[in-house]
User: What shape does this take?
Amino acid sequence: MEIQITQAAPGQLKSKPTDESKLGFGEILSDHMFQMDFESEKGWFNACIRPYGDISIDPAAMGIHYGQEIFEGLKAYNAKDGDICLFRAKENFKRFNRSATRLCMPEVDVDFTMEGLKKLILLDREWIPKTEGTSLYIRPTMIATEPHLGVRPSNNYIFFIIIGPVGAYYKEGLNPVKIYVEDKYVRAAVGGTGEIKTAGNYAASLLAAEEAKEKGFTQVLWLDAAERKYVEEVGTMNMVFIIDDEAITAPLTGSILPGITRDSVITILKDWGTKVSERNLSIDEVIEAAKNGRLKEAFGTGTAAVISPVGQITYKGEDHIVAGGKMGELSQRLYDEIVGIQYGTKPDPYGWVEQIDTEKVEFSNS
Ligand SMILES: *Cc1c(COP(=O)(O)O)cnc(C)c1O
Assistant: This one.
């Protein structure tokens, strides 16, 4: 399939952010987007890169009514020497396809979609911020578009990728966040959709997050749905607890998102000789360890924030300070290592970084 490219007219171009130090998250989107359509008879067709703008869908589109929607989140970086790099991007598209299968949506061709993404990034390369800690956030998305009021899988879909410059995910940056252990609401149960990136998971989590925010917390820490006993994950991040010399993270049993950053952290920690356990960890064990000083650090892992240190955990009305309320040593080392690999200032022994070939692609207005 050819990718039809239509460039925005000079008058349509948006103004780029002037102060990269003030970049937030997800507020600014670039000049172009990648898009393609699917019909069950035809497969994927109409692949194009076109000026960023509205998509038109029928009010009866099944994605709106029955929630067939999936997405991904990944980043491109202006690495050292002006290289444009992606970090483990193929893993994101493979996970996207697993999400698609779970919701009876069609898979995309990973190589083709990545080619579309790379062309889009090169066309909008001026949008990639250059300051350390900033990047270009990439949001692949698929939604069911067949107009039909009745529950069954849709026959039609639209896939698109939008991109935009981002800074720190939390306004705290690398300052430790306060988390509230949620023992009323649940995010996902084993057998449900907790392990895929679908809109409904996030809609279901909003009320808990809002209530926690009102009490002064950044995020909630979810417990397992069956017993409200084991720690699962936080908002859009997986969690790692350092108790004594053991790094503990929840196992991938179906209710948590298999984070790529989580996987990178596990790989690096094992290489550093740290004991890593993917096991059930009860909130009681965490609180006990916090009380007697054995909980050395706690942090979230995710593409958006990379490593987000936790400075306080509140459970059943009791506050527990973690790592003296500061970013722990291991959290900082992990952050520096991953960001170093991403920006090309540290070696990449795992082959995680893919450089986009800036020579190959040329654009002419069509
Ligand atoms: C995206 C996401 C993560 C982190 O995944 P990464 O691949 O590391 O970005 C963790 N939990 C949830 C619920 C998420 O949506």
Residues 73, 197, 233, 236-238, 257, 259-262, 301-303 surround pyridoxal-5'-phosphate (CB under 6 Å). The first strand starts at residue 4 and ends at 5.
